Amino acid sequence: MSDRSLRGMRLGAQSMETESGVEPAPRQRVEYRCEDGEQVFVTFAAEAEIPPTWVSKTGKEAVLVNGEKPTDSNEKPVRTHWDMLLERRSIEELEQILEDRLNDLRARRGERRSA
């Protein structure tokens, strides 16, 4: 080892600077509230843009207290696989396809049992 190594220090693990004279950035504490009354407090930088909604730790959506209500966007509703399937097939067609597939499956299983 070199003669210049620092003994008794964990290099890289601790800073040699002190916190004297360091001021944290200005902050603001914002309150959100869920429909069931759960309060959520979030700290933002003073110049940050505050979102109208926030997802709490429990997964519920909370709305900004004393803020503008979020506006409903004109986004298209989410289409599920079932919705897209119903655009291509009728219920009667789907029932027929299901019955055909079940008959095929039963026939294949019957062949295995007899073998």
Describe this structure in words.
This protein has 115 residues and is α+β, with helices and mostly antiparallel strands. It is 28% helix and 19% strand. It contains 2 helices and 4 strands, in the order ββββαα. The protein has helices spanning 81-88, 91-114; strands at residues 27-34, 39-45, 53-55, 61-64. The protein has a 4-stranded antiparallel β-sheet with strand order 2-1-4-3, with no helix packed on it. Strand 1 and strand 2 form a beta hairpin. The chain is elongated. The chain starts with 26 loop residues before the first strand and ends with a helix. The relative contact order is 0.09. The model has no long low-confidence stretch (mean pLDDT 84).
- Shape verdict: elongated
Q: Compute the gyration radius: what is it?
A: 31 Å
| SS-based class | alpha+beta
Treating each run of at least 4 consecutive H or I residues as one helix, how many helices?
2
Q: Output the helix-strand order.
A: EEEEHH
Q: How much of the sequence is in beta strands?
A: 15-25%
Strand order within the widest beta sheet? 2-1-4-3
Measured between the Cα atoms of the first and last residue, the distance is 77 Å
Q: Please give the number of β-strands.
A: 4
The major beta sheet can be summarized as:
4 strands, antiparallel
Mean pLDDT: 84
Helix content: 25-40%
pLDDT below 50 for ≥5 consecutive residues: which ranges?
A: none
